[in-house]
Amino acid sequence: MANEYSHRHAVVGEQNDCCRKLRVVHISDTHMEHDDIIHSIPEGDVIVHSGDFSKMRFKNFFFKDHSDSEMLRKVNSFFEQLPHRFKIFVAGNHDTFLTRFSKEEITESLPAVRYLQDSFTVCDGVKFYGSPWTISSRKIKTSKAFTAAGEVLRERWGAVDGDTDVLITHTPPYGVLDYSRHLGDTPPKAVCQFCGKGHPDRGHAGCYSLREAVLQTIRPKMHLFGHLHGSAGLTEQDDIIFSNAAFASARRFNVIDLYYK
Length: 261
Known about the structure:
Layout: E1 7-12, E2 20-27, H1 34-37, E3 46-49, H2 68-80, E4 86-89, H3 103-109, E5 114-115, E6 119-123, E7 126-131, E8 134-135, E9 147-148, H4 150-158, E10 166-169, E11 179-180, E12 203-204, H5 208-218, E13 222-225, E14 233-237, E15 240-244, H6 247-250, E16 253-260
Parallel strand pairs: 1-16, 2-3, 3-4, 4-5, 7-10, 8-9, 10-13, 13-15
Antiparallel strand pairs: 2-16, 6-7, 11-12, 14-15
């Protein structure tokens, strides 16, 4: 029997009779646990997976658990079983199997879900833009799909449409739900000079150019991401809801009700 998992909840916009409502269910970093979670995923209008469907380990350089084509079938089968009206998938750094295919081949192989790779889709008038890129790091040894240097990422974020309502990336922006014991800055000994909080065992590991783009240029209503398992949660900053739905450690989903005209 599948386990039961709880979820966090947030609301965007004013709730009144003049507004439409779109319930977004956000999951991320499920790392091949799909048979366990599929019956616990909350109901909603849109299901968004922001990367790391797969799990890349060192042994997979030599012995694959599944072929690349089989992994594509697993992704499609997972979304095919979900009842949500709209289904969106953005890749993560563990999804190395996707790098063997062109974007067009992936899209053709995933008819049950809308695959976004530096592209957008519209669901009931709400624009979702997805980009899989994560900053490259020497600390990441095996899972390097869709990773790039900082200047490349700045160009990627600069290409995001300015009328985006919901931004989906795999990586968090710097300083927002981005603590990491292994990938981040050197943890502060006292209060962090950047965020003003004490986190002596973890540093910030998000992307700084993404932070600039989100807060200064794109200004979406919501920004959905994952990647850093120990920082899962929901928060609001500068009138933007930020959602880190990394499932692997927190074992919870994020649900966001968007009210709009």
